[in-house]
Write a structure and sequence with these properties.
Helix content is 39%, strand content 18%. The chain is α/β, with parallel strands linked by helices. The strands form four sheets. The chain has a seven-stranded mixed β-sheet, with helices on both faces. It has a five-stranded mixed β-sheet with strand order 2-12-13-16-15. Strands 1-14 form a two-stranded parallel sheet. Strand 3 and strand 4 form a beta hairpin. The chain binds pyridoxal-5'-phosphate.
Length: 451
């Protein structure tokens, strides 16, 4: 006798699942896939079990949707969490421009075709004290454009061995340069590069000299490289462009914003004699994902005429958010640039919020402590700057630190912390004050219910 249960029909499972929480074609695909898997594997599940399995898959799919999270990591620019949150004005503009027609490429004075990104470009040029500026999709795209544009006749890019940085998971400067058609002419040693190294490398095949900001690491001890000014002078004498990839692109002086390190600014690089600089829009600049290029008018104009520029240009939503972010920088209104606002939140206010949360939420099964911590800026910026901060340290009679982390990730919105020395922590610097009540609710629902 065959004891295997019959595989139920797709329709029956769909009915048992009830109202769709995902568009129906998604659910149908999941059900078909699961039934096919059962048929192929000869596995036997009751229809109730199948429905449960599909519910788990639907839930996983829901969790892969883009959604807000509460960032308790203490890392202000976290690539996994979308880097820079946008300011209120940027979000308002983005909504308005996105939901209507706009003058994206239309000149309202003349009634004829206008230039795209005109305002953003002028604002960015002003912020960088540059003759001109423009913007593409991200800093990686800016590098691709620079390499493709400047290596049309000569292929060699001179770069110090100490600057062949890896940025994040799998993004290496050397690889992106080579993939864009550059032949690398590496100079110097890992820890030392001299002006003579640069001078000796310049030849008939030199397209440009590239300096890359080390971003996420630093060298100490027997290390050194020539100052920008001397490289710029050499480049000018030899008639080769000198380009700088700044990565994080701090428009404001970081040492005045509560950090110990000074991050080189685009304006200062151009003053030192760089012909062009590029940097990210969503790191210390605090705007949307973008790659900003600033410098000599002649070079920026040529880049914008390059056919590749068309493939890398930003869309209207990015430009809208970037205009608002640039305005906030020009006004030094840090309340409109959350990355810079979070950086400057005084420790006292983090302390009083942490104590407020502990006062409002003290179930017997949990132990909540307010502890002093060190956060970081993240996003491959200012690796030496430790950000003093305040965290909630949470331990439980019922759950291990890993279980606490996993449960809080299931909350809506998900709450993300970190574990240090076997203790689960939530750093308050990267949690917006208006999220405190949501946080308390999530702690309550995820950690006081042992089921
Ligand atoms: C972050 C970074 C990049 C990449 O920037 P994206 O905007 O993420 O493309 C490139 N170069 C340096 C030096 C960086 O720090």
């Amino acid at each position: 006798m065959n004891t295997r249960r019959a595989i139920p029909a797709v329709e029956k499972i769909l009915q048992s699942l009830g109202a769709d929480s995902l568009p129906r074609p998604f659910v149908v695909r999941l059900v078909r896939g699961e039934l096919a898997r059962l048929r192929a594997g000869g596995e036997s599940l009751s229809s109730g079990e199948i429905v449960e399995e599909i519910r788990v898959q639907i839930d996983q799919l829901q969790r892969s949707r883009l959604q807000t999270v509460i960032n308790g990591s203490g890392i202000i620019i976290h690539t996994n969490f979308g880097r820079a949150p946008l300011g209120a004005a940027a979000v308002r503009t983005l909504g308005a421009i996105g939901s209507s027609y706009s003058n994206l490429e239309y000149d309202l004075s003349t009634g004829s075709r206008g230039s795209r990104a005109g305002y953003a470009e002028r604002a960015l040029a002003l912020l960088c004290s540059a003759e001109s500026a423009t913007v593409v999709n991200n800093c990686a795209a800016a590098l691709v454009l620079l390499v493709r544009h400047f290596t049309k006749k000569k292929a060699e890019v001179i770069i110090s061995r100490g600057e062949l940085v890896q940025i994040g998971g799998g993004f290496r400067i050397a690889e992106i340069l080579e993939a864009s058609g550059a032949r690398l002419r590496e100079v110097g040693a890992t820890n030392k590069t001299t002006l003579d190294d640069y001078a000796a490398a310049i030849g008939r095949e030199t397209a440009f000299i590239l300096r890359v900001h080390q971003s996420n690491f630093f060298m100490s001890g027997f290390a050194g490289a020539p100052p920008n000014e001397t490289i710029a002078r050499l480049a000018r004498k030899q008639r080769v462009p000198f380009l700088v990839d700044l990565g994080s692109g701090a428009l404001a002086a970081t040492e005045k914003l509560g950090l110990v390190e000074h991050e080189p600014t685009p304006a200062e690089m151009l003053k030192h004699g760089a012909d062009l600089v590029c940097f990210s829009g969503d790191k210390l600049c605090g705007g949307p994902q973008a790659g900003i290029i600033a410098g000599k008018l002649r070079l920026v104009t040529a880049l914008k005429r390059d056919p590749l520029f068309r493939a890398l240009r930003c869309d209207k939503l990015i430009l809208a958010a970037l205009e608002a972010t640039a305005d906030a920088h020009l006004r030094k209104d840090w309340s409109e640039i959350p990355v810079l606002g979070l950086l400057q939140t005084p420790l006292e206010s983090l302390h009083s919020r942490a104590q407020g949360i502990v006062r409002q939420f003290a179930p017997p099964s949990l132990n909540l402590l307010v502890v002093d911590t060190n956060g970081e800026l993240g996003g491959g910026t200012l690796p030496r700057s430790v950000l003093r901060s305040v965290a909630l340290e949470i331990s439980s009679n019922d759950f291990s630190p890993n279980q606490i982390a996993a449960r809080l990730r299931q909350a809506t919105p998900a709450v993300i912390g970190y574990i240090v020395k076997g203790k689960f922590r939530l750093d308050l610097r990267t949690i917006f004050p208006e999220q405190d009540q949501q946080l308390i609710q999530s702690l309550h629902s995820c950690l006081t219910n042992t089921k």
